[in-house]
Amino acid sequence: MSDSIALNKANWDERAVLHAASKGYDTASFVADPRHLSGVVRFDLPRLGNIAGARGVHLQCHIGTDTLSLSRLGAHMTGLDFSPGAIAQARLLAQRCGAQVEFVEADVYDAAQVLSPGSFDLVYTGIGALCWLPSIDRWARTVSELLKPGGRLFIREGHPILWAVNEKHRDALVIEYPYFERKEPTVWDSNTTYVETEGSLTATVTHEWNHGLGEIVTALLTHGLDITALVEHDSVPWEALPGQMSSSPDGEWRLDKDAWRLPLSYTLQAMKRRD
């Protein structure tokens, strides 16, 4: 195991327990209301369309709230994550909800080895996932390996230009971090996470990599997928730039000043070629 994976796994094992108990993930609402969906999935309902009966896999599923939401829309879902702590919480949530969702512990790059390659109608990746992967090309190859011909990739992610902005500046948008993928990771050291939690982290060091939008599109095209939709959004589901954003009634956060200055997230869809 590389140092980066070991560091990130330790961090996400701790986050999983804190997130499962947090108001931000609101697992109680999933248990109380069988129609409840995560904010991330709810945001993209018009673009998701009818997925009833589809065999889907959610890569980097974390504690499974998006995976469970897709299951509630009628898809037969499997969630995959490299964190045993996250998988444990995901399985517990599914059990509490009486949901038939399978969760598998594995690195995303190993997904085609531990799951059935070429058998999925839908590969889903939620927000805040790709920045933990050192190679976007390897990710795209994995997606292609998992999908049936004609199968669909659906991803909503933080925009790579957002990841390049230094959030510590509260009166300006300052690009200080990489936009393009680099071999060396950006190293972070923080005992907090992106939602309010009761406790703090002890595994504080993490490694991340950005991937430009063109790099993502090119990787998917290279591995046999054609882009069918790409929408850039002026919002994200958390306060990504503290002091410069406000929450909207839809649960999304937008810039207070001139939201048209910066794309904050995007939704991308692609289909695996049939030939």
From TrEMBL:
<keyword id="KW-0489">Methyltransferase</keyword>
<feature type="domain" description="Methyltransferase type 12">
    <location>
        <begin position="58"/>
        <end position="153"/>
    </location>
</feature>
<keyword id="KW-0808">Transferase</keyword>
<dbReference type="Pfam" id="PF08242">
    <property type="entry name" value="Methyltransf_12"/>
</dbReference>
<dbReference type="InterPro" id="IPR013217">
    <property type="entry name" value="Methyltransf_12"/>
</dbReference>
<dbReference type="GO" id="GO:0008168">
    <property type="term" value="F:methyltransferase activity"/>
</dbReference>
<dbReference type="InterPro" id="IPR029063">
    <property type="entry name" value="SAM-dependent_MTases_sf"/>
</dbReference>
<protein>
    <submittedName>
        <fullName>Class I SAM-dependent methyltransferase</fullName>
    </submittedName>
</protein>
<dbReference type="GO" id="GO:0032259">
    <property type="term" value="P:methylation"/>
</dbReference>
